[in-house]
TrEMBL record:
Lineage of producing organism: Bacteria, Bacillati, Actinomycetota, Actinomycetes, Kitasatosporales
Protein name in the entry: Membrane protein
Organism: Streptomyces glebosus
Length: 353
C-alpha cells in the first residue's frame, strides 16, 4: 500500500510543479509579450510631413576639441557635416568636474577652448558653443568616487565652475550629472542657483537627463529590485524642465533587442517628455551616434533610423506644431556616415524652398 500511495503522489506532485512552472512563465512572459506588442504599436503608422527639424538640434563633442587634438581641418570637416542641417548647439566636453564640484584651471581643463570657439564662430556663425560639464553622482554614506549634491559646498562649487566656463567664452553650460535619482531636491536647488547666474550673462542653461518612467512609479520598483534607478518620474522631469532653457532626454541605452521595440519605446518617451515640458523650454531627444555593445545597448536595435522615426511619430501624435523641439546627437567621435545620413534624411536636413 505504501508503494502504491507513493506512486499516486508522484503524478500529483508533477502536475503541481508543471502548473507552477506555467504560472511563473505566464507571469513573466505575458507582461513582456504585452509590452512588446504595445511598443511595436507605438512604432507603427506614419509621421506627419512637417515633423522635420526646427533648427534647434544639438551635437555632443568630445574633449579632443578643447585639448589640442583637433585642428583647423577638423573644424572644416565639422562645418561640412552640419552645414545645412538643423544643428544649432554644440555641447563640447570641457572636462569632468572634480568630485567637490570644482573645475581645474582653463589651461588644464580646456586649454584650446578660446581658439576653438573663435574658429567655430568663423566657420559656423549661427552655432552656439556650450561647455559640457559632468560627473558621477554618489548618494550612500561613505560612498566615494563621485559628486555628492547634498553637500551645499559642492553645489556652490558647481555654480563657480559655470562662471568659469562662461568667462572663457562659452555660450552656455550643459550639465550631465548621473545617475540622477527621481525627486532629487538637491539637484533642483542646484538648478535654482545656476539659472540666474547663467542667464545673467546672457547664456543658456541646459541639462541631460534620464528617461521617463514608461509606467508610473517604475523608477521606484527598479531601484528596489536592482539598486539601479534607470528612470525618473514624469513629474520630476517637468520640474527640471521648468528650471532650464534646454532639456535633453538621453533616449538610448535601453537594453531593447530590436529596432521596432526601441523605436516604439522612443516614440513613447517623446510623448511623455512633450507632455511634461512647458512651452518656454527646448526639448531635445537623444540620438545614439555610437555603436558599443553592452547589456544596456544593442547597436543593431538602437539605430539612428529607429530613433528618428520613433521621435517623429511621438511628436506627430502629441504636439506636432511644437517649435521648441529638436534632436541631440551623441556623440561626434563615434558617429558613422550612416548615422549622419539617417539623421539628415529622416529629420535634420533643411529643405530649400
Amino acid at each position: 500500500m505504501q508503494r502504491r500511495g507513493t506512486t499516486q503522489a508522484r503524478p500529483r506532485w508533477r502536475r503541481a510543479v508543471t502548473w507552477a512552472a506555467w504560472t511563473v512563465a505566464l507571469l513573466i512572459v505575458l507582461p513582456l509579450t504585452l509590452a512588446g506588442t504595445a511598443l511595436r504599436a507605438q512604432y507603427a503608422g506614419e509621421a506627419a510631413p512637417e515633423a522635420r527639424t526646427r533648427g534647434r538640434d544639438a551635437l555632443w563633442l568630445g574633449h579632443a576639441w578643447v585639448d589640442g587634438r583637433r585642428d583647423a581641418s577638423d573644424v572644416a570637416a565639422l562645418r561640412r557635416r552640419i552645414q545645412g542641417t538643423g544643428i544649432r548647439d554644440l555641447y563640447v566636453h570641457a572636462g569632468p568636474l572634480e568630485h567637490d564640484g570644482t573645475l581645474p584651471p582653463a589651461r588644464v581643463a580646456y586649454p584650446r577652448a578660446g581658439r576653438l570657439i573663435s574658429a567655430l564662430h568663423r566657420a559656423l556663425p549661427s552655432v552656439r558653443v556650450h561647455a559640457w560639464l559632468g560627473d558621477r553622482l554618489v548618494y550612500e554614506p561613505g560612498e566615494r568616487g563621485g559628486l555628492r549634491l547634498s553637500d551645499a559646498a559642492a553645489r556652490a562649487a558647481i555654480v563657480a565652475s559655470a562662471r568659469q566656463v562662461l568667462a572663457a567664452g562659452f555660450a552656455g553650460v550643459h550639465l550631465d550629472l548621473e545617475p540622477l535619482h527621481s525627486g532629487n531636491a538637491d539637484y533642483l536647488r542646484l538648478l535654482d542657483r545656476l539659472g540666474p547666474v547663467v542667464r545673467g550673462r546672457g547664456a543658456v542653461l541646459s541639462v541631460a537627463v534620464h528617461q521617463i518612467d514608461p509606467l508610473p512609479g517604475l523608477h521606484s520598483v527598479s531601484g528596489a529590485l536592482t539598486g539601479h534607478r534607470k528612470w525618473i518620474s514624469q513629474r520630476f522631469f517637468g520640474q527640471v524642465a521648468r528650471r532650464v532653457d534646454q532639456i535633453a532626454l538621453m533616449s538610448y541605452d535601453t537594453g531593447l533587442p530590436a529596432e521596432s521595440l526601441y523605436g516604439g519605446y522612443v516614440a513613447q518617451q517623446t510623448r511623455l517628455a512633450l507632455a511634461a515640458t512647458g512651452p518656454h523650454t527646448d526639448l531635445l531627444m537623444g540620438l545614439p551616434f555610437f555603436h558599443t555593445e553592452s547589456v544596456g545597448h544593442h547597436a543593431s536595435a538602437e539605430t539612428v533610423r529607429a530613433a528618428v522615426r520613433g521621435i517623429r511619430l511621438g511628436l506627430t501624435r502629441e504636439e506636432p506644431g511644437r517649435r521648441r523641439f529638436g534632436m541631440a546627437l551623441y556623440v561626434d567621435f563615434a558617429a558613422t556616415d550612416e548615422d549622419w545620413a539617417a539623421y539628415g534624411k529622416g529629420w535634420g536636413r533643411r529643405h530649400r524652398s
